Amino acid sequence: MATLLRLATAGSVDDGKSTLVGRLLHDTKSVLADQMDAVERVSRDRGLATADLALLTDGLRAEREQGITIDVAYRYFATAARSFILADCPGHVQYTRNTVTGASTADAVLVLVDVRKGVLEQTRRHLAVAALLRVPHVLVAVNKIDLVDFDEAVCAGVVKEIDDLAAGLGLPDVRTVPVSALAGDNVVDRSTRTPWYDGPSVLELLEQLPSADDPRAELFRMPVQLALRPQAAARDPRHTDYRGYAGQIAAGVVRVGDRVVVLPSGVHTTVAGIDTADGELDEAFAPRSVSLRLADDVDISRGDLIAAAQDAPIPTNDLQGTICWLYDRDLVPGARVLVKHTTRTVQAVVKDVVGRLDLDSLDLQPAERLQLNDIGRVQLRLASPLAVEEYVDHRRTGAFLVIDAHDGATLAAGMVGDPLVARCPRDRASLYSI
User: Fold this and answer.
1) pTM for the complete prediction?
2) Is the model more confident about 72 or about 306?
């Protein structure tokens, strides 16, 4: 069975993301005939000689009218080697929040760069987001090479910019491919017009990427979504035959008989049973949704974390993290917010804005506030303890959201600790220290 890869596209505006996605869909024969007919009809109405493949992803009316991507467009396609869930993210700076959303669950991110413009500020921001989110694989498509007559030297200059930026961000393995999304060069099939490039096409590279790590290599973590009791027990407390705790396993594997700890209470117990809609299991692993029965009567509710007893996280009221600020109102010390971590939401106050990431120097500069689309370092004081872990070790239990306490708007996406320190050279770590 073909493996699944979650792919996100990113890059600055007009670098050709939607066109490349459309080319992938078209050349892998993943477009229905009526969809293609509609694209060709709209293209003719615009006076275009050929079909505008970007229309296959720019589905919103506002996107079609403005010729830009606004929302994250999800598409599904498959080849004989692999199945793909693709998130085509916006390039405009004001929609950076949507790019963070699209990349947050991606196994790979494909960043497009216009060979004529090179690395722009938004390119730097998107690669920084990929580094912060610990996206396992980063690919860069140097696009529109047909507009520079497939010049190797021009492409090599852009690749050097990308390599320097990747090194500064600590991205360990960034693969670059020269492409023409409009003409299809090196997108699905290798091009004869780039004899100086002997690497795989974009699709070949995506098919070759290693699958996600084995969840059995991680320690067990499951945020509780719901405490389950039969209806009879709700009507009559004497009916206590079943009590389970439902949730999606965030990491690792759990087996009947395993010792676990419930956080933040710290109570230890044993897994007595694992239930699913299909029946009982002896073991289950991420990202399976299950209901756990425990050997002891433990007070557990939504928001608690059931974790492997060994090396369990220590709940804390102080959270230090790196955030992507996604709101048009500035973040300042003293602000009162909500912090959502897995299935638990607590009140918090911003103790300090430590600094803002300079996208040119990649240094953390002192800052008194964070503005829209800034990436910065903050300290939060929590009203109730959370069992957080370093994002570099656990993507699910190391991630959090900052939410407006009044209207519920999402203000920021956060990562516990500083993912860039782990990826950057050792001598850069001091720049991000508290």
Assistant:
1) 0.77
2) 306
Residue with tokens 């490349």, as numbered in its chain: 20
What CATH number does residue 344 fall under? 2.40.30.10
Q: Residue 331: pLDDT above 60? A: yes
Amino acid code (one letter) for 297: D
CB contact at 8 A, 106 and 122: no
Specify which of 43-52, 55-64, 169-178, 223-232 reaches the highest per-range mean pLDDT: 169-178
Spatial contact of 124 and 360, defined as CB atoms under 8 Å apart: yes
User: In this structure, are strands 344-357 and 410-416 parallel, antiparallel, or unpaired?
Assistant: unpaired
DSSP string spanning 64-107?
Answer: HHHTS--SPEEEEEE-SSEEEEEEE---SGGGHHHHHHHHHT-S
Q: What is the number of structural domains in the chain?
A: 3
Cα four-point dihedral sign 90, 91, 96, 101: positive
- Where does the pLDDT of residue 63 fall: very low under 50, low under 70, confident under 90, or very high at 90 and above? very low
Given this model, what pLDDT does residue 48 score? 75
Furthest CA-CA distance within the chain: 80
Q: Let me know whether 302 and 346 are in one domain.
A: no
| Listed residue (254, 299, 260, 259) closest to 274, CA to CA | 254
CB 117 within 8 A of CB 145: no
Instruction: State the average pLDDT over residues 51-70.
Output: 52
Instruction: Check residue 56 and give its pLDDT.
Output: 66
In the 8-state DSSP scheme, what is residue 330? Answer: P
Residue that is last in its domain, among 192, 212, 232 = 212
Q: Are residues 249 and 304 in the same domain?
A: yes
Same-domain pairing of 203 and 295: no
Q: Report residue 397: phi and psi, to 5°.
A: -85, 0
Domain ranges, residue 51: 3-212
Beta carbons of 112 and 11 less than 8 angstroms apart:
yes
Structure tokens at 210: 């290693």
Q: pLDDT tens, 410-433?
A: 999 999 988 765 444 433 333 333
Give pLDDT, residue 257: 97
Last residue of a domain, one of 191, 212, 233: 212
* CB-based contacts of 65, cutoff 8 Å, min separation 6: none
